[in-house]
Amino acid sequence: MPRPGLLNLITDVPGLLVGHVTDDTVRSGATVLRTDGFWAAAVDVRGGGPGTRETEALAPENLVGRVHAIALAGGSVFGLAVADGVVAALSAQGQGLALKPGSPAIPVVPAAVLHDLGNGGDRAWGLEPPYRRWGIEAVAAAAREFALGRVGAGRGAMAGHLPGGLGSASLDLGDGLVVGALVAANPIGSVYMPDGHTFWAWPFEIDGEFGGHRPQGHAPVVDPLPEASRLADLGRLQPGVNTTLAVVACNADLSTAECKRLAMMAQDGIARAVRPAHTPFDGDTVFALASGAQGLGDGRARAVQLGRLGSAAADCLARALARAVHEAARGG
After folding, report:
1. What percent of the chain is predicted at pLDDT more than 90?
2. Name one GO molecular function term (predicted).
3. Which terminus has fewer CB within 10 Å in the chain: N or C?
C-alpha cells in the first residue's frame, strides 16, 4: 500500500534539498529546490499568465533537458532574479556544466514566479530588489526538512480570497519508487468545496494531513467562478496576478520527454484541488524532475510505470496544495 514518505515532503525523494527565504516586511519570499546532480527535467505550463525563466531549456527537442536546481519566488518579474542568486551560489560551489577548462561552472536553474506585489508589503527597494540575495540565501538554507504555510515563495500568496502558501507531500509506492510534490499556491480558484470547509482534494488526503474534513451532504457545484465579485474587488481578476507554481519529483530513470509526460499528468493535481484551474488569470506551471536512481525497464512495462508515477504525482500535488492552504490558515 503506498504511503507518504518519512517526512511527507518532496525531499523524501533522495537527493533533494529545499531552502526558503521569508521576508515579513516585504511580505514575499523565495524557495529553492536543489538536486544532488544534473537531473532530467521538463516543464508544463497550463495557465494563461505565466512568469518563467529558462523553461525552453527543458523542452524535449532542445539540448539540455536537465537541471541543477529550481527557483520559485514571489515578486512577479522582480522575483525572477532569485535564479541569478542561485546560479551564482551554485557556480561558486563548483556545481554546473564545465564547457571549457578554467571557465566558471554553469548551473542550469529554471525559475517561475507568482504575483504578490499588491499585498501591502514594503517594496521601496529602488534599484536593489532583494530577490537575487534571497536566491543565494535560499541555497545556503537548503535542507531535507523545511517549513510549510506562509513561508518562502508562498509568503505573499493568496488562494482565491484566502491566504495561500507553500505545501508539500510525498508518496512511497512501495517498490523502490518515491514521488513528491512542492507547491506555491496562489490560484484564483477556490481550494474549498461550497461548504467552505472541505478541501476539493479531500479524497486524496492521507492521515488527516490537511484537517480531515469530509463533505456533509451534496451541495450543488454549479457556479463556474465562485465569488467572482469578491475576487474582482481584491484586484485578482487580472492576467498574471494568480498562479500555482509546482515541482514534482521522482527517483526513476526518466528521460526529458518522460519528465514532460510526468509534468503534464501532475497538472491534473491542480485541477483536482482548485476550482477553477488553468484560467487566463493564472500562470500554472509544473516542473518535473527525475534522479535516475531507479530503473523502470523497457517497452510496455515502462509505459505502465510512467503512468503510475504520473498518477502519483498528481495525487501528491493535490495533497500539497491543500496542505499549503491548511498550514497557512494555521499560521504556518
Report:
1. 78
2. aminopeptidase activity
3. N
CATH number where 301 lies: 3.60.70.12
Q: What is the DSSP letter of 172?
A: E
Higher-pLDDT residue of 146, 231: 146
Structural domain contains residue 117: yes
Q: How big is the CA angle at 74 (ends 133 and 331), to the nearest 5 degrees?
A: 105
pTM listed for this prediction:
0.93
- Whether 205 is in a domain gets the answer yes
**Rounded-to-integer distance, Cα 285 and Cα 117, Å:** 19
What confidence score (pLDDT) does residue 168 get?
Answer: 98
Residue 260 inside a domain? The answer is yes
Q: For the chain, how many structural domains are there in total? A: 1
In a domain, 3, yes or no: no
What own/partner pairs with CB < 8 Å and gap ≥ 24 does 124-133 have? 125/26, 129/75, 129/78, 129/81, 130/23, 130/26, 131/30, 131/73, 131/75, 131/78, 131/79, 131/80, 131/81, 131/82, 131/85, 132/81, 132/82, 132/84, 132/85, 132/88, 133/85
Grid coordinates of 20 = 526558503
Whole-angstrom CA distances from 54 to 62, 80, 116, 164 are 12, 10, 21, 26
